[in-house]
Write a structure and sequence with these properties.
The structure holds two protein chains of two kinds.
Chain A (H helix, E strand, L loop, with lengths): L37 H12 L3 H9 L8 H25 L5 H9 L2 H33 L6 H18 L6 H25 L16 H15 L16 H28 L2 H4 L4 H47 L16 H21 L2 H29 L12 H20 L1 E2 L2 E2 L2 H34 L22
Antiparallel strand pairs in A: 1-2
Helix pairs in contact in A: 1-7, 1-9, 2-8, 2-9, 3-8, 3-9, 3-13, 3-14, 4-5, 4-13, 5-6, 5-11, 5-12, 5-13, 5-15, 6-11, 6-12, 7-9, 7-11, 8-13, 8-14, 11-12, 13-14, 13-15
Chain B lengths: L15 H17 L1 H6 L5 E7 L5 E7 L2 E2 L3 E2 L7 E5 L1 H9 L4 H6 L4 E4 L1 H16 L2
Parallel strand pairs in B: 1-5
Antiparallel strand pairs in B: 1-2, 2-3, 2-4, 5-6
Helix pairs in contact in B: 1-3
The chains are: A mainly alpha, B alpha+beta.
Chain lengths: 495, 131
């Protein structure tokens, strides 16, 4: 049945728009006209993890293990990423939605605790955007042989471009993202492999990660290695747009495999051909390219670095701003954060994200503290993996009958292992920078958590009270049904 | 057809007539809103609605910045699929319910790109709050 505009009663069925047949999908509805295939899911998952910061984290990892055997630490971190993949796979199967993190945390623990963790975790996105702006700015400045301070201009320009493009609703299409990600991976793999082959020097300690190091160094290397895979799980926010729900699960698994191969080869190659000074610079990948193919290699890696920023800025800005918008619309953040511009873009979160990222990027440029960012990112990522393990375990008890297309086998053991291991790795990563004890990352995380807690415990109740008052003052528009009260029962959540 | 009145303990359901009436109001408000027209410029999409409690389907379209009438059943291939209870759809079209909150609580589910989801939510918000 349908009505004409402004009509009130049932009328004859309307003639439908053209194309009245539709294929049916596995989830029972018609197939979406534009849906993401497995290739795009893999590229999204890999591309979100493979930010420009990846090269610095890989180079930084060499400080903890004998360089030629860095692949062992990366492989061990990969096994842990597989554990996290299992948890996220089960949770994503239960809640195949962009709001999954809110749903599974809300149902596993107190909502205030869930919000504090979520807001703290969102710090990672700001750090990654800021780090990428700094790295790409520094790399371009170095490639053009400009003075160091010019990097700050590049940073401002890059972030202004990213904010402007987002405000205008410009997004990287799935196909472009596929090409960009696979070019980055292929170029890195080719240049790193060529660096190893052209160095004419055999690997010295390919199977002895502890040579010249302590066991605790290896643990710190694994903690840093986890960061190399970090954000692969962000693709779960695309669960609503995939052609088949299982694509998310499979795509994440393939992404972990790709990241292991590319990061291992790149790290071993960097440790093999770069000096300590080059490894600890803000652009070790440029030196890798230069060591392999001279100036052409340097420019190739500068271009690759710029392309990584395309994925980071596109994915990071969209993920963070839409999450903030959704949370504000839900009533957990001030309504001003849900204001839209004429292109239906939540402009306040986009501008705020750009501004905060700019400040962080400039602070990093002044202090050269990019390894602190890597440590903060590694610790936050391990923390969220720990939380995912905890949520998976608790939901097995709290929602035993919930449909689970994918279940982690042996969760009773693996869940405890996940919570314990990721918890320890988060702690280790938060107090270690460049193989030295440094509590700055822990302090940064503690400040972010304290601000989140202050907002959730002190400010949010006032925001919610204002919202409730506004709702109560707004009369219902829906006409009452015959036989019910004039106003009818209030809807559970008003506009 | 009279509105569906629930028995004691049952959740109320909205009839297709109630949903159509609510949608007509929403459509009129949306199509009259100049700001909303700017927001959906170039955004031509087809949306399928599915009710979980009454197992009914509807189709709506946005074409050339205009919201179409509500078609019965699922027609054509959608860009976006929205699933929720009939009451939620009815309240949403009347502007009495915030679909985002229902979405964040998992009571309304969606299939489609995040961008399309944003635009649809923008329509529901701007049509009533003009933000």
């Amino acid at each position: 049945m349908t009505t004409e505009p402004g009509g009130t009663g049932p009328v004859t069925p309307a003639v439908g728009p053209p194309g009245a047949t539709h294929p049916v999908t596995s989830h029972g509805g018609a197939a979406l006209r534009r849906a993401l295939g497995l290739r795009t899911v893999v590229s999204t998952s890999t591309g979100l993890a493979f930010a420009a910061l990846e090269y610095l984290a890989a180079a930084g990892l060499v400080a903890y293990v004998a360089g030629d055997s860095a692949w062992i630490a990366i492989g061990t971190a990969g096994l842990l990423a597989l554990l996290a993949w299992g948890f996220f796979g089960e949770l994503n199967g239960m809640f195949p939605t962009a709001a999954a993190i809110r749903l599974y945390m809300k149902r596993s623990m107190d909502d205030r605790v869930a919000l504090i963790i979520t807001f703290t975790y969102m710090t990672t996105i700001i750090l990654v955007i800021a780090a990428d702006a700094f790295i790409v700015g520094s790399a371009l400045s170095h490639a053009f042989n400009e003075p160091t301070w010019v990097a700050a201009i590049w940073i401002v320009g890059l972030l202004a471009l990213a904010v402007g493009a987002n405000l205008r609703g410009v997004h990287v299409a799935g196909g472009v993202q596929d090409v960009a990600t696979y070019i980055v991976l292929a170029a890195t793999l080719v240049i790193a492999s060529a660096a190893l082959l052209r160095s004419h020097a055999a690997l010295r300690y390919p199977l002895q990660p502890l040579h010249g190091h302590h066991g605790t160094d290896f643990i710190e290397a694994v903690a840093l290695g986890v960061f190399l895979y970090s954000a692969f799980e962000w693709v779960t926010t695309s669960a609503e747009e995939v052609r088949h729900p299982a694509h998310v699960h499979r795509g994440m698994l393939i992404a972990v495999g790709l990241l292991f191969v590319v990061c291992s080869v790149a790290t071993v190659a960097m440790s093999h051909v770069l000096t300590h000074h080059q490894l600890t610079s803000a652009y070790p990948q440029l030196y890798l390219g230069q060591a392999t193919f001279g100036q052409a290699g340097l420019w190739a890696m500068a271009a690759v670095t710029a392309v990584t920023a395309l994925n980071t800025f596109n994915g990071g800005f969209i993920t963070a701003s839409r999450f903030v918008y959704g949370t504000a619309r839900e009533g957990s953040l001030p309504r001003q954060l849900a204001l839209l511009n004429d292109r239906a873009v939540p402009w306040v979160p986009v501008v705020a994200l750009g501004a905060v990222s700019l400040v962080v990027a400039l602070v990093v440029a002044l202090t050269h503290g990019w390894q602190v960012l890597v440590a903060v990112g590694a610790a936050l990522e391990a923390m969220i993996y720990c939380v995912a393990a905890l949520c998976t375990v608790r939901l097995r008890t709290r929602a035993p009958d919930h449909h689970r297309p994918f279940r982690v086998r042996g969760l009773r053991v693996l869940g405890v292992v996940g919570v314990g291991l990721f918890g320890v790795l988060a702690l280790v990563a938060s107090v270690s920078v460049e193989n030295k004890f440094n509590p700055v990352p822990l302090v940064i995380i503690a400040v972010a958590a304290a601000l989140s807690a202050w907002y959730v415990l002190r400010v949010l109740p006032r925001v919610q009270a204002r919202e409730a008052a506004r709702r109560a003052a707004t009369p219902r528009r829906r006409p009452p049904r015959p036989g019910t009260s004039a106003t009818g029962p209030p809807p559970s959540v008003a506009s | 057809m009279s509105p569906c009145r629930p028995r004691r303990g049952e959740r109320p359901v909205a009839t297709s007539e109630e949903i159509a009436e609510a949608y007509a109001d929403w459509r009129a408000r949306s199509n009259e809103n100049e700001r909303l027209k700017k927001m959906v410029r170039g955004w031509d999409r087809r949306v399928h609605l599915s009710t979980t409690d009454t197992a009914e389907g509807y189709t709506l379209e946005v074409r050339d910045q205009v919201l179409s009438q509500l078609y019965p059943g699922h027609v054509g291939q959608p860009d976006l699929i929205v699933t929720g209870s009939s009451e939620d759809f009815c309240d949403m079209f009347w502007g009495d319910l915030n679909p985002s909150a229902k979405y964040m609580s998992g009571e309304i589910t969606l299939a489609g790109s995040q961008e399309d989801v944003m635009r649809l939510d923008a329509i529901s918000m701007v049509a009533f709050l003009d933000q």
